[in-house]
Amino acid sequence: MRKASLILPLALAACPTDPALTPEAGSLSTTSELETTSTDTGSAETTTDETAATSSGDTGLECTQSNECKDETRPVCDPAMGTCVACDAVEIPDQACAEANVEHPLCVDGRCVQCTAEDATVCDAQSLVCDAQSGECVPCTEHEQCGEAACNFYTGACLPGDAVVHVGGATPDFVAINAAVISFPSGTEGTIIVHPGDYNESVTVSDGRTLAFLAAELGPGVEQPRWVRSSGTSPQLTVVDATVLVDGLEIMGNASTAPPGVQLDGGWAWVDRSRIVQNNGGGILAQNGATLTLRNSFVGGYVADVDAIALNGSSLDMLYTTVAAGVPLVTNARALFCEGAATASIRNSILLSVDTVPEVECTGATLNSSATEAGVGFMASWFAGYGVGDFHLTAAGQAVFADIAQWQLGDPPTDIDGDTRPSTDGSTDYAGADAP
Q1: What stretches in the chain show pLDDT beneath 70?
Q2: Model's pTM, two decimal places?
Q3: How far apart are CA 65 and CA 72, in angstroms?
Q4: Could you tell me if 163 and 189 are in contact, meaning their C-beta atoms sit under 8 angstroms apart?
Q5: Helices 2-14 and 23-55 meet at what angle, rounded to 10?
Q6: Options 2.30.170, 3.30.160, 2.160.20, 1.10.8; CATH of 158-429
């Protein structure tokens, strides 16, 4: 077109008398030339805009890589189509998910998930457990979710699966609990499986260790390991600047009147499905800013002049636990006694004492859906063996303590013996550790 604009003036000069080439015709040709030039310029501008658009990444496609796909039902990019698709629509689904998000490497029903019942690799790396229904890694809430290891309920992480030792049993790693404890260096985590038998010793867990003491077996008719102390002036278990988790043990029969069965000097202790009873120095003492959690346990016993649980500047979270104290011969025997800046949150529990003083002396305590002597009175016949620390309910006790507790989502699904509790939020239930 630009050659025509050059040739046309030469033609006019060579043939000035050609009637077809009047000034009007020349004027038309000039206008056409201008229009042509304008069209060419517009074309050049369009080409420049398209180049700029291409360089900014706006290709008109939905995606070029999977991190651009935000819809969880279409989590990966099909590069051939330039669209986000379900992960099972591509040739290698798991690989596509892993490339899209390394934390969600598995394809299930078109979605990229973290884990399945068959593959919990991502969860294992984080010491979490797999919720197979959602395909997500979640904190553990039961020891059984962590294989042979324990769940640290304070953090929601499973303790290391390669740090599990056995005490007692047919093929023990150790024959004494204390030997197992000191096998773990300061600051480490581990699980100690305790097999049935009598263990007469005093143990201290300290120096930042996190250790779980789990009964090898649980359930109706199963013999619990008995942790006793027939001599000396030390508790069976002392916790100093450490974390312990106890499940399914009997800590009983400390012959000394000086120490309780369990003493916390700071640190944390979470006790489940255990019996801390008939210790002459009382059940549990928590002091120096300690944190104590009790669930589905018996604490106390028919022991003179000692409190079943004593808190000094420490905190208690108690759920579905039966706490019973003995007789006052010289001084008081209370179910719960607090001093210092102590706090206690108590729910679905029983607190009783043979003493005539209040069974709970704790200004920092809050009680919900629980039974106290002030509310229901006291009869030793409500229990299978109050005098020996057996707080299972008799028929008479069942009539008294039924429908006092209220089960909530997240509460233990079973009682101290493994008997089933309700599973509907807001259901009434037996107070205390035993649900007949």
Answers
A1: 1-59
A2: 0.82
A3: 15
A4: yes
A5: 170
A6: 2.160.20
